[in-house]
Amino acid sequence: MLRIVASRASRARGVAARLLNSSTSVTAPSIAETVTLRAFTTTALKSGALPIPTGAHGVNYHNANPEGGYSFFMPRQSLIGPGALKTAGNIVKSLNLKKAMIVTDEGLAKAGAVQPVLDMLAANGVEAIVFPGAKPNPTDENVADGLAMLKQHGCDFIVSYGGGSSHDCAKGIAIVATNGGRIHDYEGVDRSSKPILPLVSVNTTAGTASEMTRFCIITDSSRRVKMAIVDSAVTPTIAVDDPELMVKMPAALTAATGMDALTHAVEAYMSTISNPVTDASALHAMKLISAYLRTAVSNGKDARARDMMSYAQFLAGMAFNSASLGYVHAMAHQLGGFYNLPHGVCNAVLLPVIQDFNASAVPDRFVDVGEALGLGRLSAAEAPAAVVAAIRELSRDVGIPANLEALGVKPEDFDVLAENSLKDACGFTNPRPATKDEIVDLFRKAYEQGSSGQAMAASA
């Protein structure tokens, strides 16, 4: 029996090889050939003639399945696609919410970009005020100011409008509003005791995924350190990703947020607590980003690219929301807090350096990442270098600065940056643990890599 199955499997592989090597214009197999190939392969797998793929690029866990299983975190409801904002209004009305505080940044407020949200709320009988105090790297002071306005006007829920900065600021306000104290009290993992105020997060960028995650990053202005608040309670009630709101996003911001999403996907896939659900989300996010980010940057009006990048960043959020991240984010948080640098750009600069560091610990995982990035099926020996090169090429193509020197980072600060990086919760799931000296060396490599002469402004 095994001989027969093996023979059938060999013939099936022969069919596949002929199809792949065909030089004719019709390269797709017929329905009959596809069914036959699948039947042969399935029979061979069942009989044991072909091994079931496992591990990094198979149908099993990367990591040991923990006792009690994995947790998977999502918003109560997620709305994705053109017209999603309108649907959100119906849900707000059904929740019997009466008065909203819209948390956004000053630029969006002055440009009148918040008007679609005001119109949506008004159409559903909801009052609203606008708090335009979310800074690019929101601080504890922004949270305190927003909380004061919330209480002054008696708002019973919050709408965040914009990118990660608006969402994180709103999350900080929402958790303190119901739990009391200061935002500093919630630094770390699951420090709250009560649900947050209802939060509707309307996203206008395709990168941070803050509109749907349990992560909230707030800068402690006195320490110049970004506090990582990881708490299922800060997950927004409703996440809204409407690509029609993303069309006017500038090219530089599109690039930075897109590379942020890629970093989420790659780090989640490398994480020591990834699982089959997060793996699937991460890999598909990588495929979409590799296929559509360049177009979204070069032609922001391309509806297909905007739509697919919206899905990509959401999938990457699904991945890291449960699998967490790694040293790229742990180190980028320090750069953002210390120098007030754009988060996505910091991630993009650090990503190839950290993955080169991780390669010796988990080389097999780079096989899948390479395939998702369009590099084909490489060996575990070939994949890491190819993946790192592909990440650098994508960054260069969308105009990300080459290194930390171009961002104004100072080598004399590496020591304190490294020390704080090792305290950041995002680094705890990196596949290769690092010492402080190794983190300093990684900062140095990110400082020296490439050329400082790339065109994109670091302040994008």
TrEMBL record:
Species classification: Eukaryota, Viridiplantae, Chlorophyta, core chlorophytes, Trebouxiophyceae
Swiss-Prot/TrEMBL GO biological process terms: fermentation
Full protein name: Alcohol dehydrogenase 4
Domain of life: Eukaryota
InterPro entries attached to this UniProt entry: ADH_Fe/GldA, ADH_Fe_C, ADH_Fe_CS, Alcohol_dehydrogenase_Fe
Organism name: Auxenochlorella protothecoides (Green microalga)
Family to which this protein belongs: Belongs to the iron-containing alcohol dehydrogenase family.
Signal peptide: none
GO molecular function, one term: metal ion binding
Gene3D superfamilies named among the record's database cross-references: 3.40.50.1970, Dehydroquinate synthase-like - alpha domain
SUPFAM superfamilies tied to this protein: Dehydroquinate synthase-like (SSF56796)
Keyword 4Fe-4S: no
Keywords on record: NAD, Oxidoreductase
Residue span(s) of domain Alcohol dehydrogenase iron-type/glycerol dehydrogenase GldA: 75-243
Keyword Oxidoreductase: yes
